[in-house]
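re: ur question from earlier - yeah i can do the single chain one, its not a big deal. heres the input i used so u can compare w yours
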Amino acid sequence: MKIVPDRIVPLGFGKYVRADRIVALVPIEEDRGPGRRTLVYVEGISDPLTAGRTEGTILRDMVGPESGTIELLRELQMQIGQVRPLLKSSIRSEAGLDLDELSRRITDLTGEPESPRIF
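and the output i got, formated as tokens:
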């Protein structure tokens, strides 16, 4: 996961911090209740802030929906690398779907090298 710089993350009850300033998220286990879900440690603030949202929700806001998209693209690219060349050729001619081209486009979007091909 990659934190999106300059993204503002709501902590609940009118509290907001920049995603790239959050150092740690600690779930509150004792005295947990409305308005008391997570301790948020923020760079430059000595005491943690008490958030009314769970650590998972805060984390999702820190990385944004893009993070899940990238993971999905990586998984798709890995799966494409497992398809045999003859089947890829058949899919390309029958359905017009070029799996190798999709893999190249995923590489362009994610900036990561293509997964090694098994076949």
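The mean pLDDT is 87. not sure if urs matches, ping me
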